[in-house]
Amino acid sequence: MSTMYEVLPGPEHFLPPAAASMGIRLPDPGQAHIHGKIVNEDEAMEAAARQFLSAKVPTIFPGPLVLWAWNEKAAKKATAIRHLYETIKESVTPSQQAMLIPMPDYRPKYPKINPEIEINPNHPNLTIWHNKIDACMFVGVHCHQANLSLKIIRGGTYCYTIAMCAQAGHEDAMVSFRDATADKIMRLADWVKKLKGSVEPPKD
Amino acid sequence: MSKERIKIAAEMFEIMPSEYQDLVDRATYGKEGRGWKDIGTSKELIEEHSLCAGCPESMAFRYILASLPAPEDTVMVGSTGCTSLVFPHVGVHNIHSLFGNQNAIASGLKRALSVRFPGQVKDVVVLAGDGATVDIGLDMTLQAWFRQEKFTTICFDNELYANTGGQESGLMQKGFVAKMAPVGKTFEKVKLPEIARESGCHYVVNCTVSKPNLVEKVIKNAIHVAREIGPTYLQLYTPCILEIGKNSMEGLQEMRDSEKPTERFAYKEYVSDEAKELLTELAAKEKERKAAAKKQLAEKQLAGKA
Ligand SMILES: Cc1ncc(C[n+]2csc(CCOP(=O)(O)OP(=O)(O)O)c2C)c(N)n1
Ligand code: SF4
Ligand SMILES: [Mg+2]
What we know:
The structure holds two protein chains of two kinds. Chain A is an alpha/beta fold. Chain A has helices spanning 41-54, 64-67, 72-91, 124-131, 143-156, 182-195; strands spanning 31-34, 37-40, 58-62, 99-100, 135-139, 160-164, 175-177. In chain A, 36% of the residues lie in helices and 14% in strands. Chain A has a seven-stranded mixed β-sheet with strand order 2-1-7-6-5-3-4, sandwiched between helices. In chain A, helix 5 links the parallel strand 5 (135-139) and strand 6. In chain A, helix 1 (41-54) packs across helix 6 (182-195) and helix 3 packs parallel to helix 6. Chain A starts with 30 loop residues before the first strand and ends in a 9-residue tail after the last helix. The mean pLDDT of chain A is 95. Chain B is built from nine helices and seven strands; from the N terminus they run H-H-E-E-H-E-H-H-E-H-E-H-E-H-E-H. Chain B has two domains: 32-271, 3-Layer(aba) Sandwich (Rossmann fold); 273-306. Classes of the chains: A alpha/beta, B alpha/beta. The structure holds thiamine diphosphate, iron/sulfur cluster and magnesium ion (MG). Thiamine diphosphate is lined by residues 80-83, 98-99, 128-132, 156, 158, 161-164, 169 of chain B.
């Protein structure tokens, strides 16, 4: 491929291609990717922190793997996610609104979900549109459902997506980490704290 | 899955939608002797359903979910039809299978669970419409019974294909004219309960869902027999009020009319000798449990007064 495909905020179109089919590859351990380009993890940490600090509605979407206390590891991640959320909240200006919205499960709920308080992988765009979310991070969502959500969001919204993945990462996110642990999430919170005040807040 | 694992991470509790908080705090997972009487006093394992208003399938779902002996260790297998629109709202593990394949999927699932969790209770319960059970899936239904697969098959018999607008089904009555079957059925309602008995089912019941206590009893019996002995089959009349031209308040009466002694849903039961023995044993244990609970309560009240 002569020009490399870039995973960028949409709306791309109704059926955005799977980034993997466009030549985007997953990072190796210790790496991450930004827009599909492989980078070292710290570079991606900084990029993700900047996105949180410059968004009007920076949001974390925790999924079932961290919402439910399956084991000690899951409970630790939940604590770290809460810490990251509180850190973002403390680090943004009053005109920005940090949110923490769960994806409790993957069932296609009828007649529809309540987009104010939850997100569903079958129509994640509803929650993004309703809350005007312009940057988000998925964590603790099973791979298939995360891929589905990331593609729908890229297809139908302008939201910037970040994946904090516990496995090998997500081609379909704009920034993707891999091998997520509670420590890694805490490190991201440290980056947010470090960059606080040095990132231009959004203009209305 | 053990009940202890159904716990929300402490830091996430307040952001969870209330139905999940309720499932953890007020549902009856793990409760001994759970049953239909929990409806209204605890969190049910079914959310708002997407069936037509007043559809008897919704009552049937509520009674069945309230009566499962171990919902946290149960996997339900569904098939396409009106029931499949309800499963996304259900707080029990479930698998949607390709139309008609439900008993094949359940066979593999039950065997896999026995290998993966030896010595642990893992109930598999198929719940599908009559089209799925008796027509398109008849092969899978019968083969599972021939092979003595240890799970329960429940058929919601509404005597036609409701979800696709009213086509003829094997369980439809002779002469019935449906919206998409204008000629009228030319042969008799298939006698699946009798076929189930001859095919090796150890517990078979044909009834309506008009009485919650009866539904509770047959569900518990069918699941316990399947757990210990072999296949069981329940054929429950859940009339499609939409297709037979009834309004939403008339489903219950329709069931009552159809369960009279001379009617096609008069209570009919077949229990194998092995199953009879087991059910007698279980009934004795249940009696003991209730007596002990009663005694304990009386002692507690007495202690409270003193
Ligand atoms: C393999 C396959 N064949 C056909 C269909 C179409 N189909 C969907 S629902 C349905 C009828 C369902 O009837 P029944 O099992 O009686 O359930 P009900 O809707 O009456 O509850 C059919 C034929 C399908 N979804 N899949
Ligand atoms: S079409 Fe019939 S069976 Fe299906 S939900 Fe409506 S009333 Fe119930
Ligand atoms: Mg039917």
